TrEMBL record:
Domain of life assignment: Eukaryota
UniProt keyword list: Membrane, Transmembrane, Transmembrane helix
An annotated Gene Ontology molecular function: transmembrane transporter activity
Pfam families in the cross-refs: Xan_ur_permease
GO CC, any one term: membrane
Family the UniProt entry places it in: Belongs to the nucleobase:cation symporter-2 (NCS2) (TC 2.A.40) family.
Topology term for the membrane: Multi-pass membrane protein
NCBIfam families per record: NCS2_1
Protein name: Nucleobase-ascorbate transporter 2
Entry's localization field: Membrane
Transmembrane regions: 32-59, 132-153, 159-176, 183-201, 221-241, 362-384, 390-409, 421-440, 460-479
Amino acid sequence: MEMTDMKPEEMSHPPMDQLIGMEYCIDSNPSWGGAIVLGFQHFILCLGTAVMIPTMLVPLMGGNAHDKAKVVQTVLFVTGINTILQTLFGTRLPTVIGGSYAFVIPVISVISDPSLVRIADDHTRFKMTMRAIQGALIISSCIQIIIGYSQLWGVCSRFFSPLGMVPVIALAGFGLFERGFPVIGKCVEIGLPMLVLFVALSQYLKHVQVRHFPILERFSVLISIALLWVYAHILTVSGAYKHSSLLTQVNCCTDRANLITTASWISIPYPLQWGAPTFSADHSFGMMSAVLVSLIESTGAFMAAARLASATPPPPFVLSRGIGWQGIGLLFDGLFGTVSGSTVSVENVGLLGSTRIGSRRVIQISAGFMIFFSILGRFGALFASIPFTLFAAIYCVLFGYVGAVGLSFMQFTNMNSMRNLFIIGISLFLGISIPEYFFQFTISAQHSPAHTRAGWFNDLINTIFSSPPTVGFIISVVLDNTLEVRNRAKDRGMPWWARFRTFRGDSRNEEFYNLPFNLNRFFPPS
């Protein structure tokens, strides 16, 4: 058939609820052997953030290498617990609940509190700062628990539309560009080969099969990390970086974080292991801004995970339930002392797309690995010695996947409407541009744009406007609900979205989101 003979509907692709080509959806499971290796792959991937945040914050608090190793173990342990709780009782989507960068700004303002900076002994300062951070996390977690379980976030989500969600989900991925190539550039000799190898294995060689199993596509992260890790280790041992700058050594060498030599063989993290938390209204208010940011970032990541797991978009009731459990996760972060709060791990959502496996069981197995290796400290530390540059190379692909999933929501809207083009264009542009301004300003002026005497107010402004998904969310949702709204339901994608605005609106919701162990009898969905 020639192009000219085609009917108009044959020339374009009709909108589709579910992605084509996903091998396993949320409640279908690969074989046990495959699921265990895939779970291990998700565990390796979440190590990047689990090691990076403590490596950045613990030295500022006055902690030594041993303290840092202990914090990394605690982060992994709590990530495992939170992931199991979220996949069993929260949204039930295949999402890892890991460390969040949104909390870095309020945490740094706690660290630089004059009353803590004055402490002369480094170890005492570390412990006192940790307790102050724990207190702020515990208080602010209450806000998230209330917003979730009161169904307040579910009520707010009634104002969302496919159009309003495009920038939020897209920026949950694209907004993390600082963690991609800028990090590869710090050690190009291992970062660039890693990126090329990962793309080659996961895309070009994905049809290579061993015993009818697409081994290169499924395990591309594990294979490429293993090969480049060995290569990086050979370079490290052979003394290639002996005379390099400290920055190059940190980015290129294996175990520059000194975790292997300082981690205990076996240690079980427990609540209040650093002592009783201390509470301060100023710190807690600052931390609440990060809670709002992680709430919005998680909403975008949950929507992306649902699409990559071939599930329906989570109805308001389920989304609120997930946010409530995330609040409980934040309470655990505060009780155990993980230095920062938690949110949905965007890289693990991207890996669902890369492996084409959105199975919930795989994520639950990965949570088991996190808990296991956090207790066996030395083994966990061995895996945590992977250079950050290797993770950055993988992030380039996986964050891109999540961003593209956000853009895929445009198929349900009318993209020939000038109103829609304006809303998506300005939300995406300012969602990248405003946080970049805050970032560049902070680097050049050595303080954030909001620099008043009220610390909590500074944290509020600097945290919210440093988050691309949050800026995109504020602009797109406000414009979408105030600009020429009358008779625009079809343009905004509401006829498609309407089915997912109540739990009973689509018969598949029960299959995907019902609680296990028949718990729906006690907590009936609204």
